[in-house]
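User: Can you write out an input/output pair for a complex, sequences first and structure second?

Assistant: Here is one pair. Inputs:
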Amino acid sequence: MPQQELLPGTLDLLVLKTLTRGPLHGYGIAQYLLEHSGQLLQVGEGSLYPALQRLLVNGWTEAEWKLTETGRRARVYKLTAAGRKRLKEEEREFERMVGAIQSILKTV
Amino acid sequence: MPQQELLPGTLDLLVLKTLTRGPLHGYGIAQYLLEHSGQLLQVGEGSLYPALQRLLVNGWTEAEWKLTETGRRARVYKLTAAGRKRLKEEEREFERMVGAIQSILKTV
DNA sequence: ATCGATACATCGATAGACGATGCCTCAGCA
DNA sequence: TGCTGAGGCATCGTCTATCGATGTATCGAT
């Protein structure tokens, strides 16, 4: 059984939250999530880039091509006001769901 | 935006957990989850019955046709030993994932 | 020269959730 | 008598998301 790298449906939330720390590019987002989750949240590229597209299309983020300090081109994403609003909603919804599930799990 | 009824990937976990309280049929499982989650976990039939099939096929549950007190036929599901083991794994994995996500969410 | 890390993106397969639909029984009520 | 709603099963098609594989390219270090 291949263990999943992610809880399905939570990736947009994670990306949006990461971007509250400041504009960042895709690779950096994946790194941030990996490092700040004890290596648990391993976002594959095949999941990440489609997610970044979703966020763009929905207007939750804006993108700009830039050069990193190391001289590589990178597409830097920035939260929009709508994105911040969306983040709040997704956070609330996530906590609601987790709370509901845990209330089931904790019953003896 | 249609709000989701379930956190994807958590349905098997919820069903397995529900069955630790004793054998139960599909309809009863859906009711239990609804009632014990403050009406939050609304499992649709199009999600539930495929899930019950999965659990059966994997040997996590056993099924038996019975009659309810009201005289209707019902397929009653019961946890197997393997199902109990599986439940423990899924519980651990869920808490791990939620912990990781919340550690991202709580950073300022 | 090659290799690993950085950086983008797409494609196809798989899986899961969901709404709609269909079939059946029983109890209650008009 | 006939209808309706609740209890019960199940499947089908659609949609969406995750994921592994693949492909391109640059840069620094060996």
